[in-house]
Structure of RimJ/RimL family protein N-acetyltransferase:
Amino acid sequence: MRSVHVTGERLGLREVTVDDVDALHAVYGDPAATHHLPFDPRTREEVAEIVAEAITAAAATPRRLYVLAVTDSETRAVIGVARLHIEADHPHSAEIGLGLRSDLWGRGIGTDLIRLLLKFGFKDLGLHRLWGARSPANTAAQLAMLVAGMVEEGRIRHHVPTPAGWRDSIVHSALADEWPAH
Ligand SMILES: CC(C)(COP(=O)(O)OP(=O)(O)OC[C@H]1O[C@@H](n2cnc3c(N)ncnc32)[C@H](O)[C@@H]1OP(=O)(O)O)[C@@H](O)C(=O)NCCC(=O)NCCS
């Protein structure tokens, strides 16, 4: 398995390890962070399971799932989590997802993280299409994806079941042809 190490100006991406469970729980266990996500805050045990599954998925051939720790380039602290999932039937295309510690929101880190994920997907993995689906009410994700160059494509009705009922998604995408545009 080739281990992922991506370095940006103020952020890095690397493989998650069992030592990252608490840092990831600070995101997935935070009701503010899961507010627009289709699941309730995760328990520490659930996060430990996600990490264990991510480590198993990292060893698969072909590899389809990348669950990556988002690190602060200066301190090396884990400040968030990023996912890139290559579609089984469309291996040129992957869905991305991200979450940051809520005390760090609103400083442009989310936008930088999306730019770094696009670089990883297009340059390192050679993918053609990267897309993300957000809740229609998730303004921060909307702005971060738009500013990073992900075009709004449209609405998938009742895309995901959530604890509160069916939820539509707004899909954004970026294409290798257009990158780097931002
Ligand atoms: C989505 C997320 C990663 C954005 O991270 P962030 O670091 O706050 O993003 P940025 O600081 O780059 O902000 C992007 C834009 O959204 C704006 N913004 C941030 N939070 C906002 C909010 N709550 N309401 C409205 N606008 C907001 C910022 O001002 C910025 O706009 P600008 O470029 O015009 O200044 C972060 O909110 C998060 O982790 N949310 C929880 C998980 C999640 O929703 N993931 C996305 C699923 S699709």
User: Anything to note?
Assistant: The first strand starts at residue 5 and ends at 7. Residues 33, 36-37, 97-100, 105-111, 132, 134, 138-141, 143-144, 147 surround coenzyme A (CB under 6 Å).
